[in-house]
Amino acid sequence: MKALSQQRRHPLAVLVLMVLALLLSGGLYAVATTTNEAKAQTESYSAQDLEEGEKLFIANCSTCHGLDGAGTPSGPSLIGVGAAAVDFQVGTGRMPMQANGPQAPQKAPQFSPEETAQMAGYVATLGPGPAVPEEEYLDVTQGNAANGAKVFLANCAMCHNAAGAGGALTRGKYAPSLMGVEEVHIYEAMQTGPQNMPVFNDANITPEEKRDVITYLKTLEESPNPGGFGLGALGPVSEGLFVWTIGLAVIIGFTIWLTSRSA
Q1: Distance CA 227, CA 219 (A)
Q2: Which UniProt keywords are given for this protein, alphabetically ordered (predicted)?
Q3: Topology of the domain covering 135-222
Q4: Is 156 marked as binding a ligand?
């Protein structure tokens, strides 16, 4: 006890106590925040919805993701992905996958919106994660298309093209076109980072900026083609290939015509 009492007077004792206090308070705050977030995500779902969601998950998803959602060699863990990830993947038909591949393609959804919401609610109970966005952040009438263009060009255009037409990536992967995609799925994609896409949480792109990006993309959808061939709005590569192919064909045809005339 005497030795311990002496250590209390050590110059570093106060520093050690401060570090311990910070660690303790930070840990308690993290636990409280996690609990509140998980509760907030699931309180919008009824007990019956969560029960039905669990049944749907076990019947359709557990083969790859495990009965407890912790993942298997065939599929990643879903603990902590949140309701938004499930709503995006299942709502766009990417999940369940038809076959293994470098990327899950979009296809017709296999579940109704109600069933998708039930599965999303169940997965949200496995661990805290991004929730399905609120309607106010999907209302493009409140968005700023000009600011959305700045955010999109700075963060998304290198993969999805400045016109949102998509583009090729490496090893058979690709950035899909964003034309015709529902507002909620665009928001959820930014939230959850599906496939090869990075996650843009609220610290990177705020909910208001996400709404601006959606507004910009919807403005592009409604913009008329100024004329000529759109070529998918894929930019100079497709345009250059088109000009090269057609131009070369014209030159060859003109040469053949001149040769036949001289003969």
Answers
A1: 18
A2: Cell membrane, Electron transport, Heme, Iron, Membrane, Metal-binding, Repeat, Respiratory chain, Translocase, Transmembrane, Transmembrane helix, Transport
A3: Cytochrome Bc1 Complex; Chain D, domain 2 (1.10.760)
A4: yes
Domains 47-126 and 135-222 alike in fold? yes
pLDDT for the residue 127: 92
pLDDT in tens, 26-52: 555 455 444 444 444 555 789 999 999
Domain coordinates of the chain in residue numbers? Answer: 47-126, 135-222
- At 174 the three-state DSSP class reads strand
Rounded CA-CA distance 13/19 in Å is 10
Exposed/middle/buried for 30, CB within 10 Å: 0-12, 13-18, 19+? Answer: exposed
Please tell me which residue, 221 or 244, carries the higher pLDDT value.
221
CATH number of 47-126: 1.10.760.10
- Is 159 part of any known ligand binding site? yes
DSSP designation for 75: B
CA–CA distances in Å: residue 113 to residues 11, 104, 105: 63, 20, 19
Query: Is residue 64 marked as binding?
Result: yes
Q: What letter would DSSP give residue 131?
A: P
Say if residue 61 carries a ligand binding annotation: yes
